[in-house]
Amino acid sequence: MTVPFREATIDLDAIADNVRHFRRLTGVEVIAVVKANAYGHGAAASAVAALAGGATRLGVAEIPEALELRRQGVHAPIMAWLHAPGERFEQAAAENIELGISSFDQLEAASVVASVDRPVAVHLKFETGLSRNGIAPADWGRVLAEAARLERIGRLRVVGLFSHLSNTSLDDDRAALSKFEEGVAAAASSGIRPEIRHIAATAAAIEHAEMRLDAVRVGVGIYGLSPFDDRSSAQLGLRPAMTLRSAVAAVRRVPAGTGVSYGYDHRTERDTTLVLVPLGYADGVPRQASGKLPVSIGGRRFTNVGRIAMDQFVVDVGDTPVSIGDEVVLFGDPTLGLPSAADWADAAGTINYEIVTRIGARVPRRAS
Ligand SMILES: Cc1ncc(COP(=O)(O)O)c(C=O)c1O
């Protein structure tokens, strides 16, 4: 079998199983978060897998992501919550996209494109301490009164009330939840009866039963990754969906003292074999991990040497026999003995979210 030059294999069954896991664990609706090309896993295929696993709604950041899913034939409810300044919501309304609303102006813009026979579905987002978007508490009264009026005249349907947590500490998240509950109570006094309230993403969905409410918006967890530093995917009952592979592009036997890659940050200490892996920072291999990046070749773990370049990096395999075309697994499921996205994150000083999300467009995704 020829080994792919570069490839991210996506285990769609793992995505479906991970969603099933969250359905069982929480007992509430799972909104599968498939923004940013499903954290690098491929938006449409991941969305379909998540729906097969029991998700009933999809979450994306921006409207173009939602429209692309529609273009790819995904008909499930989709919500989008981060809008361009001055967004008019025309296409979103035409494609039946549910809108996360963070301001009075957004509410008005949504109502303009609604009609009585086709009200726009919205989720009102309360700012509860993350200091990003969301309706500021000082505006809750005005926005809720207007949303209730628009609902009464049939231009709007308030499907959801939601917020997002900072995951700073249990106390901070509880404070955010209680602020959110004030918003829910204010909405009720204005006559708004949403179908769902949602505040928890992966971490709170796992950790805090009281924050699951009516739905959880799960991103990193459905891709089988842990949102915690101190617990692995397997400890959470999750299976990583992405395996990043490549084929050795060159093999070179070199003497001691040979400089490797730009700037000669590394010189070989003895006669050794250097192998070239054809992925670089253009493909999402973090340059900050230079000299620390773990990979698996022929079932053995090695660490890269020298600087990671745009298209390639070098691994010192010592005297291990390696040939051009041999498979390199860059990361995957650590229960199979492979480096994990979390190992890469440690090497790069970042989080596993960023590792998978930044795998570049030049790396083909293949469903497995
Ligand atoms: C509003 C919102 N909800 C849910 C998520 C999913 O978060 P996680 O990947 O931690 O589950 C995100 C991701 O950043 C988000 O921005």
Textual characterization of the structure:
It is an enzyme of class 5 (isomerase). With 368 residues, this protein is of the alpha/beta class. Helices cover 29% and strands 24% of the residues. It is built from eleven helices and 19 strands. The protein has helices spanning 12-26, 35-39, 43-52, 63-71, 90-94, 104-112, 140-152, 170-189, 202-207, 341-348, 352-357, and strands at 6-10, 29-33, 57-60, 78-80, 98-101, 120-125, 156-162, 196-200, 215-218, 242-247, 250-254, 259-260, 266-267, 272-277, 294-297, 300-305, 313-318, 327-331, 365-367. The protein has a nine-stranded mixed beta sheet. It has an eight-stranded parallel beta barrel with strand order 2-3-4-5-6-7-8-9, surrounded by six helices. The longest helix has 20 residues, at 170-189. The model has no long low-confidence stretch (mean pLDDT 97). Residues 33, 81, 164, 201-203, 217-221, 227 line the site of pyridoxal-5'-phosphate.
CATH class descriptor of the largest domain:
Alpha Beta
Strand order of the largest sheet: 11-14-17-16-15-18-10-1-19
Write down the secondary-structure element order.
EHEHHEHEHEHEHEHEHEEEEEEEEEEHHE
Beta-strand proportion: 15-25%
Count of distinct strands: 19
Layout: helices, strands, pairs:
Layout: E1 6-10, H1 12-26, E2 29-33, H2 35-39, H3 43-52, E3 57-60, H4 63-71, E4 78-80, H5 90-94, E5 98-101, H6 104-112, E6 120-125, H7 140-152, E7 156-162, H8 170-189, E8 196-200, H9 202-207, E9 215-218, E10 242-247, E11 250-254, E12 259-260, E13 266-267, E14 272-277, E15 294-297, E16 300-305, E17 313-318, E18 327-331, H10 341-348, H11 352-357, E19 365-367
Helix pairs in contact: 1-3
This protein binds pyridoxal-5'-phosphate.
